[in-house]
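Backbone shape codes:
===
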Amino acid sequence: MDIAAIAKELNLEIRSARDRLENIVTGGYTGDLLSDVMANSHAGDIWITRQVHQNIVAIATLKEHAGIILVNSCEPAKDTLERAKQENVPILVSRLGAFELTGKIYNLLAKDK
């Protein structure tokens, strides 16, 4: 399933890299501790977090994540958006909390298999 389909299904707001919404999501990781995300997430994951600083873009790029979803209507910092545009990393925003959003994405990915 690609990011565009997830965004449409869950009413996510796109903040960067609209041209990368065809990125295929193969799994997901939910976490706010950057070292944990670096150690345990995988390429192709959609990363669900409430962190808004530019280090999230660096980690998403390093780990080759499909994209980042910010929860609880958190908005990325201005420098984060600039970095995401430079690195072409999709950042989306959800009104949902991490627990609910993670469950919904898990179910979408399970149905898609």
The first helix runs from residue 3 to 10. The chain has a mean pLDDT of 96. The two ends are 9 Å apart (CA to CA). The chain has five helices and five strands.
